[in-house]
Amino acid sequence: MRTRLCRHVCPRNCYNTCGLISMVEGDTIVKLYGDPAHGYSRGHLCRLGYSYLEIFNHPDRVLYPLKQEPRGSGNWRRISWTEALEQIAVYMLDLAAKYGSMLPVCIYNNSGDIGLLHRAWNWLARAMGRVTTATGNICMAAGLDALAYGFGTYTQPDPIDMAKARYLLLWGANPAWTAVHQMEYINRAREKGARLVVIDPVFTATASQADLYIQIRPGSDGALAAGIAWHLWQNGLIDNSYLSRNVVGWEAWQDYLAGLNLEELSAATGVSPELMARLAEEYATNTPAAIWLGLGLQRHVNGGQNVRTISALAAMTGNLGREGGGVYYPSLEYFNIFTTDWPEWMAPEDELRKFPIYDLAGALQRLQDPPVKMALIAGANPVVQNADSEALQRSLAAMELVVVSDLFLTSTARLADIFLPATTFLEHWDVVPSYWHRWIGVNEPAVPPRGECRSDLMTAASLAEMLNQKNPGVCPFPTGRSEEVWLAQLFNQEVYRLLGINHYRELLLGPRKLKLPANPWAGGQFATPSGCYELYSRRAEKDGLPSLPVYQPPAASTGPYPYRLLTTHTRDGLNSQFYNIADVPEPVAYISRDLARQKQLQNGTLVRLYNEWGEIIVPVEIKEMLPPRTVLCHQRPLPGGQSLNSLVPPLATDMGTITCGGPNLAYYDIFVNITPA
Amino acid sequence: MQRGFFVDLNRCTGCRACVAACRNWKGINLSLRQVYTEADYYLSLACNHCENPECFRVCPQRTYSKRRDGIVLHNSGRCTGCNRCVRSCPFTAPRYNPTTGKIEKCDLCVERIDNGIAPACVEACPVKALQVLELDAEKDFGVKWVPGLAGIQMTRPNIRFNIPGARERHLLL
Amino acid sequence: MDRRNWCRFMEIAAEGGGLTSVARFLGEITELPVILCDLTLRVLAYQLPARSKYNFGDYLPLDLPIQAKSQGEFYLGRLKEPDVNYLMLPIGREPRYGYLFLLEPEKEWEVYQEPLKAAALAAMVEMSRTRISQETERRYRNEFVQDILYNNLPNREAMVNRGWLWGWDLTRPHLLVVMELDDRETGEGSKMLWEQWHQLMRFHLGRQVPQAILADRSEQLIILLPVGLDDLGSNKRKLTNLVNYLQKTTAEHLAGITFSAGVGRFYENVAELYRAYQEAKVALEISRLLCRRDALTFFDELGVLRLIFNLGEQELEDYYEPESVIITTG
Prior knowledge:
The structure holds 3 protein chains of 3 kinds.
Chain A: E1 3-9, E2 19-25, E3 28-34, H1 52-56, E4 66-68, E5 76-78, H2 81-99, E6 102-109, H3 120-128, E7 131-135, H4 141-151, E8 167-171, H5 175-178, H6 182-191, E9 195-199, H7 205-209, E10 212-214, H8 221-234, H9 240-246, E11 247-248, H10 250-258, H11 262-269, H12 273-285, E12 289-293, H13 303-316, E13 326-328, H14 333-336, E14 353-356, H15 360-366, E15 374-378, H16 382-385, H17 389-398, E16 401-406, E17 418-421, E18 430-432, E19 439-443, H18 456-470, H19 483-490, H20 493-499, E20 512-513, E21 533-534, H21 538-542, E22 563-566, E23 589-591, H22 593-599, E24 606-611, E25 614-622, E26 630-632, H23 657-660, E27 670-676
Parallel strand pairs in A: 6-7, 6-15, 7-14, 8-9, 8-12, 9-10, 11-21, 12-13, 15-16, 16-17, 22-26, 23-25
Antiparallel strand pairs in A: 1-2, 2-3, 4-5, 4-17, 18-19, 19-20, 22-27, 24-25, 24-27
Chain B: E1 2-8, H1 17-26, E2 34-37, E3 42-45, H2 54-58, E4 64-66, E5 72-74, H3 84-88, E6 95-97, E7 102-104, H4 110-113, H5 120-124, E8 130-135, E9 159-162, E10 168-170
Chain C: H1 3-15, H2 18-30, E1 34-38, E2 43-47, E3 69-71, E4 74-78, E5 85-91, E6 98-103, H3 113-149, H4 156-165, E7 174-181, H5 188-208, E8 213-217, E9 220-226, H6 232-253, E10 259-263, H7 273-289, E11 295-298, H8 305-308, H9 313-319, E12 328-329
Parallel strand pairs in C: 10-11
Antiparallel strand pairs in C: 1-2, 1-6, 3-4, 4-5, 5-6, 7-9, 7-10, 8-9, 11-12
């Protein structure tokens, strides 16, 4: 029996995008381990990476198309692919006949698998043109727009270069749990004497390692940054030559800083003026200094402004372009270098009817002329991950046909009529860039798909084929191509040049790193209209936003719902995935000792967390060092048909349109009340 | 020369890659390593390959042995799953596997060690918080006990810790 | 001292003439009584002038640690009895092997320095040679005993057969005793103390029970004591007497140093001795938890204590009532 080694790249929505190798004997994967040739993850995986064989072999994996009759009953029966695709295609064509276009069809796809070939559903939508899809990004849009206003087009320095920093300011980022391999580079810097400072409302695992941890009131990060900026300015810690050469708007911003009241800022943030001054001093004098903008601080209604203000600190001190320094935030540039647009068969982007992704539930209900009648959801679990779960469930219930493609019967899948089983990365081809580091790897299948599973690409192609069978030419999506042929289409001359290869198959010998400058801002050139870093952004002003990085407060609690609910990410899973493996802890709501005493709750007491959008019942656990009037519930699926996001309204952040087509969800600006259940 | 784990509490982030890597390598559905959350750090513990292993003493079937390099091995051949060792170990190292009806215990990945590579957990750790060291009475590094670990006087576990350094923390005003 | 004498000492050492030859030659040159001792002041060799009236037993009548005035590397002191002066030079520095004494040196004792140094060097060659072969044997013996006690041998036959090679009859039942000094110190002094204690125990155990097997691990001595199948009571009595004797000897020779011992249960089969070993250590640890010194604890007399010990030291101390535990104190 021949033993083969195959290369893979983990396609989860995660900073690390690690390389893996599988050892295959015949048609059985016998071992799965980290790829030592991957320059970023260096042969390491995380808790989730090591659990992939368990996922691959999980008894709950759906291996055949299923039909649920009636919807929501749990009565699933196996059907053939032909049957499934026929039902879907025929229904779509009926809708088109009735309404004059396929606008009543909503195709919804998200980051369940970020490999490029998994955009096939979006490509299918583009092939058909007049279809309803979401625009925007529920995760990172505000921060990206904020940085785009400042930088022009933002892309981050090489994160491996954090090892060269002397000062690491992790602002709202918790890599110890959500980007574990970055800790290696942080630790390398620390071994050489660098100082690690963490600012976070929650005392995270990363915070526990920091030389200096500063707790902050959730959402007030812009105020702290403004306070630090004031001290940098007042204490002569700014880089005047950098400001005059490379920054636009410093004078205007000085006026703003001059008008700041430090006591107010201190009250808003919970950080003393002395500590702000100290931070300013440390940040300015320990160069190169790097700021890692976490995603949490932009999950507020003022998220974008928070990011603009923090990023301004790097501009003020000349840290923007320094090797080892600068501003770090995930970006999508390494995805954008690939070819994912084929005008030969794709309709123009603006033919799609788009709704803001953060209001999926509302859009499905409200859109008219024509209304949405069918939802096709793939690589996403919006009932758990998107806002307003209860409304979304009602919206889906109102659909005439709901199709879900996934590995397991998720909470969203349980509301479907037809379930189409998908493959894992061990069973299909793809290329997976990272939104963090510059390593690119090709993912080859280790074994043929289990059962009758199909990759998203093959499923979309099959649907296109069936549509064309019923109505020739209705769907120009290319069919009859293998995954590898599609893969080859993604690669272009620019990609080959940046990777230093001639053919994508060379990546099967090992992932390669994009040849890009370590810090894209080293030359002091910015892709803004002025060519400078824009503290003052006319573009922002035109978009109805403050022209300057001014502090705007986050949402505040109202009378009936006094407690802020933070739903931060944790190590036990990734969004809604991996919660069906062994060793997963029980869900719990963390509260402070004070709150427990006030409500007479003990460890293990079941409580109702509720607001006007929904409610959940969960046990509590007392946790030290929580901010006052805050409940912490790690983001994850809940058992018993509950959803944490039933508490989350479709509340948008302040920006996100220019980079992502729409704002993200202000997940951390929501409020609840709590009573014993 | 006694082999034992060295746990750097300064570096461990509680990410539990070690736990998953162990399960992955052993191919069984229970983990032989656990990560405990303490007030200020995380404790990653598997088997401590003690000097005076209680599991070894109480087993009625003579399934345990301790190699010259200190690794305490469990030979499942004679194991009847009586669980006496499970109850007697202060560190809950032996685990009962309901599928086989026998005990499993960390064996410091002997087959890997004997081939010169580190155990799966050590290799997996993204922050190099775990190591296997050759502990001798003369070599005096790290500390033998930290809060959160059970008493060490009776079994004399072969494990050492590096305690976390001083940190500065500022909570909300 | 002229060079020919130096050469003679070296020849004696090279020829393997033994400590007696070294002592004899030193006695010839100095015309003084020469006594060569090990670390425990046991007399290994001596040379007395013809008209000398000294009569020494196994040990030099001198207390350890040695109280003497140091003169550079040399020491001037007085024996306990007879009450005479001595000039002493330690044999070896690191490690130390023993001591070389000259009795009744004259006032200008500097003249004895060179002969003493040469003799000490020759003695050191001899003693280090012995030490190396002793250490090698000790290592192999320890490895074998630990293979038995940590269950690394496949079956009883393997143990018994290997045992014959050592001259041991492992078909006989053995009681297992673990002994450990009460004060565990660190640093240089403790290494020498352990070595002294080890040598003392080896010598006296060998004299009292020649068939006893002595091994060591982690600063504990392990004794496998062959016993008959007669009633346990009499075996225990014999063992208690032996341990008490060893404890008395230790206190005598090492100025009040004490050790405690733990004894495992009786197992007829050598293949079960691994249990006795762990039990002996448990018994010893429990006596330590209860802050006993100079103790001898039998595992099978611990009663309920052995069930609750793994709750931790604090619980044990809280629970402990002095009368409920049988721990004999030497």
